[in-house]
């Protein structure tokens, strides 16, 4: 591992905290200027993610130092999941989370993006409720009690479903993927595909980073490319659900 680069948290409760990112062939830190522009665009596209603190979740793929997820947490996101395949980077990521006092809001997965996405999909299938017809008697009793109490009661099936949903991997309001540029075409296309499968929350934004000379990936399955921005050698592509 080569020398390290110093960065900082741009805004929020951890503003000004210096972060460290390994400078190696496997990681490429996003510059502070680009990061500041990124979050300015995010705020303009989806201000509710920042004006309702503690309600949004961030997925930082190919996280490296974790600076994107850390910036999101600093600005009021509830939780961040960091996915990074380079095991030596884990210590630096943990150190940055400890310095910013954001460890309790964070989850670190040392695995490939492909493995994380496959596990997420498996969790969705496990959480799907089995189709079970409600008994007529139970339905009638439920309606009668609701009328008496003026409240909506849960059926046994609904209760079981909620318990399963509590265990399943949730959707994310912000997904950021910053793969090595040589792998960006393949990994970004994969992430876009999973975003359309429900990885991206309905009010969320997916941001794919790639080399500036690489054209954007066409949106699919209800997602739309709403903006793209070039900063030097970097192209950022922003996707949201169509209205």
TrEMBL record:
Domain of life: Bacteria
GO molecular function: methyltransferase activity; nucleic acid binding
Keyword Cytoplasm: no
Alphabetic keyword roster: Methyltransferase, Transferase
PROSITE patterns, alphabetized: N6_MTASE
Pfam families noted in UniProt: Cons_hypoth95
GO biological process, one term: rRNA methylation
The keyword Transferase appears for this protein: yes
Protein name: RNA methyltransferase, RsmD family
Origin species: Amygdalobacter nucleatus
């Amino acid at each position: 591992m080569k020398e390290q680069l110093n960065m900082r948290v741009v805004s929020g409760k951890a503003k000004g905290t210096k972060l460290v990112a390994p400078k190696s062939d496997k990681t490429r830190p996003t510059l502070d200027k680009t990061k500041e522009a990124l979050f300015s665009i995010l705020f303009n596209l989806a201000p509710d993610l920042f004006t309702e603190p503690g309600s949004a979740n961030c997925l930082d793929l190919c996280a490296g130092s974790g600076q994107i997820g850390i910036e999101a947490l600093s600005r009021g996101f509830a939780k961040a999941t960091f996915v990074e395949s380079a095991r030596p980077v884990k210590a630096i990521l943990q150190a940055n989370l400890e310095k910013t006092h954001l460890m309790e809001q964070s989850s670190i997965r040392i695995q490939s993006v492909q493995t994380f996405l496959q596990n997420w999909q498996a969790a969705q299938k496990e959480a799907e409720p089995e189709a079970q017809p409600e008994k007529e008697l139970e339905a009638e009793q439920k309606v009668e009690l609701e009328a008496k109490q003026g409240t909506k009661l849960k059926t046994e099936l609904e209760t079981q479903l909620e318990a399963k949903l509590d265990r399943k991997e949730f959707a994310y309001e912000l997904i950021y993927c910053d793969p090595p540029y040589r792998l960006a075409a393949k990994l970004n296309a994969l992430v876009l595909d999973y975003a359309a499968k429900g990885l991206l929350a309905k009010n969320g934004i997916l941001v794919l980073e790639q080399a500036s000379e690489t054209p954007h990936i066409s949106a699919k399955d209800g997602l739309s490319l709403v903006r793209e921005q070039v900063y030097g050698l970097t192209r950022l592509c922003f996707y949201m659900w169509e209205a």
